[in-house]
Amino acid sequence: MSSSSDPTELLGSLARETDKAERDTSASNPGPQNLGLVKLNPNADVPPPTDHGVVEPFWYSYDLTHRRVQEGGWTHQVTTRELPVSKDIAGVNMRLTKGSFRELHWHLADEWAIMLSGKARVTVFTPDGAMFVDDVSAGDLWLFPAGAPHSIQALGEDGCEFLLVFNQGDFSEESTLLLSDWLKHTPPEILQRNFGLSAEAIAKLPKGEPLYIFPSDEPEKSLEQEIAEVAQHAAKPKMSYTFKASTMKPTKESDAGNVKIIDSRNFPASQKIASAIVTVKPGCMRELHWHPNGSEWQYWIKGKGRMTVFPGQEAARTMDFTANDVGFVSNMAGHYIENTGDEDLVFLEMFVAGEFQEISLNRWLRALPEQAAMAHTNLSRADLEKIPTGDHPLLR
Questions:
Q1: pLDDT-based confidence at 2, cuts 50/70/90?
Q2: For 26-63, how does the pLDDT look when each residue is reduced to its tens digit (9 = 90+)?
Q3: Closest residue by Cα to residue 99 from 78, 72, 132, 79
Q4: Which positions are annotated as active-site residues?
Q5: For 137-142, what is the mean pLDDT?
Q6: Are 114 and 164 in contact (CB under 8 A)?
Q7: What is the distance between the alpha carbons of residues 180 and 319, in angstroms, rounded to a whole number?
Q8: Cα–Cα nearest to 330, from 346, 352, 345
């Protein structure tokens, strides 16, 4: 690189070196390649010269997973089995056709969810004897606490699709506690005594494989009528287990995009899972930052982008993402996200934490005493004053 102190010449020299490293014959690969994957992840195939060392893969796609399909819908998942680096969070993508149910069940982990399309009616029964019923639409959320039994039923002609997030990395949708599975494995005479029913009535209970996902008719009653109905037999819920994020005003917004932050402060039911819904405009980026209170699990809803993760120890890795991908950033690791497409980039940030927290590199540098910042970066006072100071994580 040139020894000149002219910033323009230095940047030009760096650009030339970067271009050479990315395009000369050293990066050529005449051997076998999966060109489909190379096209999807060009920054993994020919990484930027700034990448270095060994960083575990932090990309996976739902399109690579086994999809369990049965009458009424389908489901597939990304857990530690598919993405080993994600030890605290797993995700399940599910679709239900019109009227179909995700069977009554409960989990060992909390279930956070976002509706991707369509509409559904959800129920959850709490330990204090309350029954919560609500309808959710695309963009809305719910939180079902661990151990609380719940159901999901699709409404409308197109049914619904949603993403479930669990605060347990080795979670499996195949091992949930299902009502039909429990009844099938309980002696009939015990069921008779427990329910006070005849043998003929017990014989009507589902047999064979657990229901899991199954078709049904849509509810005949309105939401208000069903709420009134359940109130005859159950206590009134003390809090809401759904959150209308679809109509929420963004927490932070600029011409570069917006961020909606949802955690225990505005969604009290979500005590253990914090989230952000991020929209980045074309040509813009999520600034360099890190999170001091947990690893970040991502679901990419729309658009495409790239992310470099810096976990320290002179290591960094860049990977590309598109809709239906899962990303992961290890605890405390620095990173940014750049919109590399020509449409809005929309993705989720998920944390096993009660509150969303982040530290901005820009804000940190600007908050420091000037002498300390200049000594560490070789930037002048005039340079430092150009660094954005606003409390906004998206930049043009």
A1: very low
A2: 888 989 999 998 998 999 999 999 999 999 999 999 99
A3: 72
A4: 349
A5: 98
A6: no
A7: 43
A8: 352
For tokens 């494989």, the residue is 209
Task: Choose which CATH entry (2.60.120.10, 3.30.470.20, 3.40.50.2000, 1.10.238.10) describes domain 248-395.
Answer: 2.60.120.10
Tokens of 73: 């819908």
> Alpha-carbon distance 289 to 297, whole Å?
15
Kind and range of the H or E element at 37? helix 35-40
In angstroms, what is the C-alpha Rg of the chain?
A: 25
Say yes or no: domain 71-243 is CATH 2.60.120.10: yes
Q: Is the pLDDT of residue 261 over 80?
A: yes
Count other Cβ atoms within 10 Å, centred on residue 41.
18
pLDDT at 19 (0 to 100):
54
Prediction pTM value: 0.92
CATH 2.60.120.10 residue window(s) in the chain? 71-243, 248-395
